[in-house]
């Protein structure tokens, strides 16, 4: 199984079948189900045999729709054993189909799976939702496709063939992007990609059989799917898994669990560290012991220096080591990670950054602070900052598009050859790399050999000849008035008679808040921090700001809704 990510799992199941790889934890933080290597293989082989009995052939797609829990892991491994390409997706809410079904239906249309795999409990809820929809003609209907249950597969009665990929570029899974700047696309992750990513994780994060991870990341998102689940299956850790909802309902459960099991590793997006500070008490923090934690990774969304500082200050009494917290950067199109190990910050001149140059700041009011995202994680990685128009490689401290190439660069977008060529086979001026680079669509610069990310190329706001990053404007706005909801700000531009005009959407906690005062506060801070007058500020309830299933702001969708006046207060 030279090219298979399951090689280490198969060896573990033979040599150490009782070694626990996963412990699934309930919403109160109590251990619910332990899953050892031998049990994973036995149950996954039963799924693999069922897939073959159901008519699946090697290379067929199977969409995985599962609530958080062990059945997802079993189905994922079963697909890989059978050579079936798993497609993990966000489970549509059977009672909120108008909001959650379109993305699911779009994925089915795009990847054309043979069937959807799930558990009986979810399928029962789906059926109840369909019955409720009989009385609501405006409610969308589930697409017609076969659904199969994997929680009652009969155990295999004979040795099961493990299909071993003969080529590292053989597709292993389809990872649909979160669609923060457009429609989700299926990224073809190969077996070679997975082996490279899992190996790099073990080396860069210091993982191994003594590592204990605590995670609540969504299992269908690349961060949770590959960096946690598949990495754990590779023998890199014993992972304790919470559901994302358990964390969102009570952030303290994350730290209760880390303290109880003496966790060594964890990871989360930036918003989680903000939430942890706001939703835990001084007394709770004093009762936790986080001193064994060697890695607190922040990734998957822009990292705010204010968040890092407030988290470190708040959790120092819990024994948190400041050097355990570091930033990382990655994306599904590169399997997951591009850089890791960022601990430093740079305070830069805002006007210089708008002009495409990282220049040290001389005064506080006209400065912006960025968190470094570390250095390339793979020994063969080629990281370049490139002018997106001329494709010329830019020198250090010049802002351009981030291009990367390594063994974990994905194969491309499923069924989209033109987009694959444009995005995954880009050439720098002079033709430096025969295999081509991945165009990430992100903007950044290199300082020394560390990457600093400044924003998204497609989200760049160009007003009066200035290049403004929406993240900077959103960071200024989110703290300017206490009624603004955390994570409830989106900035983008729209056409106007005088060129591009800035629009800021603001979600508020209470509809009784003084909206005029909020608009004034936003207008004033945008003018003071960014020297922009005339921004249109729209205030509304939760839901005004469009987001992906993983919580990223969909600025393009916000822009489209604003222009169409869909869900935007008049």
Tell me the domain tally: 3
Question: Strands of the largest sheet, in order across it?
Answer: 2-1-10-9-11-12-13-14-17
Distance between the termini: 60 Å
Structural class: alpha/beta
Low-confidence stretches: none
**CA radius of gyration:** 24 Å
Task: Tell me about the largest β-sheet.
Answer: 9 strands, mixed
Compact overview of the structure:
The chain is α/β, with parallel strands linked by helices.
What does this 3D model show about the protein?
The chain is an alpha/beta fold. The protein has 3 domains: 7-239, Rossmann fold (3-Layer(aba) Sandwich); 297-456, ANL, N-terminal domain (Rossmann fold, 3-Layer(aba) Sandwich); 461-564, GMP Synthetase, Chain A, domain 3 (2-Layer Sandwich), CATH 3.30.300. Helices cover 33% and strands 25% of the residues. The protein is built from 17 helices and 27 strands. It has a 9-stranded mixed β-sheet, with helices on both faces. Strands 4-3-5-6 form a 4-stranded parallel β-sheet. Strand 12, helix 12 (305-315) and strand 13 (325-330) form a beta-alpha-beta unit. The longest helix is centred in the first third of the chain and has 17 residues, at 37-53. It starts with 6 loop residues before the first helix and ends in a 6-residue tail after the last helix. The mean pLDDT is 92.
């Amino acid at each position: 199984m030279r090219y298979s990510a399951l090689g280490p799992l198969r060896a573990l199941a033979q040599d150490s079948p009782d070694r626990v790889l996963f412990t699934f934890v309930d919403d109160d933080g109590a251990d619910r189900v332990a899953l050892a290597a031998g049990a994973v293989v036995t149950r996954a082989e039963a799924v693999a045999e069922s897939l073959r009995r159901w008519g699946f052939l090697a290379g067929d797609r199977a969409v995985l729709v599962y609530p958080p829990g062990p059945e997802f892991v079993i189905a994922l491994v079963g697909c890989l054993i059978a050579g079936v390409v798993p497609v993990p997706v966000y489970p549509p809410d059977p009672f909120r189909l108008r909001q959650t079904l379109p993305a699911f239906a779009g994925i089915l249309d795009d990847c054309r799976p043979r069937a959807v795999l799930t558990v009986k409990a979810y399928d029962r809820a789906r059926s109840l939702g369909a019955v409720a929809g009989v009385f609501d003609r405006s409610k969308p209907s589930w697409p017609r496709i076969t659904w199969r249950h994997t929680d009652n597969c009969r155990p295999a009665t004979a040795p099961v063939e493990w299909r071993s990929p003969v080529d590292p570029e053989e597709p292993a899974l389809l990872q649909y992007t979160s669609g923060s700047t457009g429609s989700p696309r299926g990224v073809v992750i190969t077996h070679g990609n997975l082996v490279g990513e899992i190996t790099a994780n073990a080396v860069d994060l210091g993982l191994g059989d003594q590592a204990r991870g605590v995670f609540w990341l969504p299992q269908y998102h690349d961060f949770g799917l590959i960096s946690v689940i598949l990495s754990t299956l590779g023998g890199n850790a014993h992972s304790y898994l919470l559901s994302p909802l358990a964390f969102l309902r009570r952030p303290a459960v994350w730290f209760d669990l880390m303290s109880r099991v003496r966790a060594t590793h964890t990871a989360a997006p930036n918003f989680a560290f903000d939430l942890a500070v706001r939703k835990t008490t001084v007394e709770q923090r004093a009762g936790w012991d986080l001193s064994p934690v060697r890695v607190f990774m922040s990734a998957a969304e822009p990292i705010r220096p204010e968040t890092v500082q407030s988290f470190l200050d708040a959790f120092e009494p819990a024994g948190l080591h400041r050097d355990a917290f570091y930033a990382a950067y990655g994306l599904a199109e590169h399997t997951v990670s591009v850089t890791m190990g960022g601990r430093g910050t740079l305070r830069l001149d805002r006007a210089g950054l708008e002009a495409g140059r990282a220049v040290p700041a001389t005064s506080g009011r006209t400065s912006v602070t960025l968190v470094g995202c570390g250095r390339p994680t793979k020994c063969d990685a080629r990281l370049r900052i490139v002018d997106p128009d001329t494709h010329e490689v830019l020198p250090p401290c010049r802002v351009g598009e981030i291009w990367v190439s390594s063994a974990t660069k994905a194969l491309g977008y499923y069924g989209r050859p033109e987009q694959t060529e444009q995005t995954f086979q880009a050439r720098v001026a002079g033709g430096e790399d025969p295999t081509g680079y991945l165009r990430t669509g992100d903007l950044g610069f290199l300082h020394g050999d560390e990457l600093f990310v400044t924003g998204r190329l497609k989200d760049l706001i160009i007003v009066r000849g200035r290049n403004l990053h929406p993240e900077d404007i959103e960071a200024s706005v989110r703290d300017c008035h206490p009624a603004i909801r955390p994570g409830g700000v989106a900035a983008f531009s729209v056409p106007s008679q005088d060129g591009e005009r800035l629009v800021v959407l603001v979600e508020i906690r209470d509809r009784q808040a003084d909206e005029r005062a909020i608009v004034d506060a936003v207008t004033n801070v945008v003018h003071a921090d960014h020297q922009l007058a005339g921004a249109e500020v729209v205030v509304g309830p939760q839901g005004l700001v469009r987001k992906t299933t993983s919580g990223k702001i969909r600025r393009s969708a916000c822009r489209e809704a604003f222009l169409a006046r869909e869900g935007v207060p008049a």
